Amino acid sequence: MTRVVFEAVDGCGDKLRATGPPRRRVAATDSDPRSTDEADPRSAAVTFVTAEHFGLQGARAATIAESTGRANMFLAAVSGGLVALGLVATASSLGTAFYGFGLVLLPTLAFVGFVTFERTLQCSIEETEYARRIAVLRDYYFEHAPAIAPYLLSVPPAERLHLQRVPGDRWQGYLTVAGMVAVITAVLAGSTAVLASILIFDHSLAAAVISGTLVALPTVIVMIRHQDSAWTRAVAEPLRPNED
Fold first, then answer.
1. Contacts of 74 (CB under 8 A, 6+ apart)
2. Buried b (16+ CB within 10 A) or exposed e, 177-204
3. Would you say 219 and 190 are in contact if contact means Cβ atoms under 8 Å apart?
4. According to the model, what pLDDT value does residue 214 have?
5. What gap in Å lies between CA 177 and CA 174, rounded to an integer?
6. Going by DSSP bridges, is the β-strand pair 4-9/15-20 parallel, antiparallel, or unpaired?
7. What is the pLDDT of residue 31?
8. Measured in Å, how far apart are the chain's first and last C-alpha atoms?
9. Structural domain boundaries of the chain?
């Protein structure tokens, strides 16, 4: 065993020697907690939750973009069809060609409206699901980082979907993209009934108004109620199979 010799210099310049036990040098290793900081076990979870929140928000924006795009295509088809119908009416002086063209065009536009309504409704339900999942992630933020609560808007769970502008009241269905498509589709269906009644009842104005109202009004009511019931089922359905 080796011994360590210490040398010092006194006030007169003479060296003083001292001996003592050997001193061991301990090298730090990567596994030594003194050399490396322990990783926060929640850091990976926070990263995943943040990425999930960003992905859900992007998916929600995609559903809104698809609804807007389909509504624009539907409105473009209706606008083009009505312009063509007007040109035919001018060229035929409201003759047989006008009624024949109208009875082909208007039901076709109404069918496109029904299809567009159903797809925009599906997009709206998907957006509702994404909003619910984002609300669940906000629970994680407030639970594991309570210090941010004063800087973020927090509401009871029952009100979070309303805060994110998810349809909930009685008249909200008429303000959505699907509701707008439903109203226009009902008008197209009623217009088809008007043209048919004019031909059947020898250009009777009363018969045309009554038949158009009896078709358009129930159509829009049924479509809006279908939309409301679809939203109700979507909100009531649990996010996880075993969730009450």
1. 112, 113, 116, 181, 184
2. bbbbbbbbbbbbbbbbbbbbbbeeeeee
3. yes
4. 95
5. 8
6. antiparallel
7. 47
8. 73
9. 43-230
d(CA 178, CA 140): 33
Query: Which residues have CB under 8 Å from 131's CB, separation 6+?
Result: 60, 161, 164, 166
pLDDT confidence of residue 151:
66
CB atoms under 10 Å from CB of 155, counted, come to 13
Q: Are the CB atoms for 179 and 224 separated by under 8 Å? A: yes
At 51, list the tokens.
Answer: 């990425």
Distance CA 7, CA 176 (A): 89
Mean pLDDT split into 10-residue runs, the chain, 244 residues: 48 49 48 47 72 84 91 95 93 89 94 95 87 77 70 59 54 85 96 92 89 94 91 75 56
Give the position of tokens 């008249």. 171
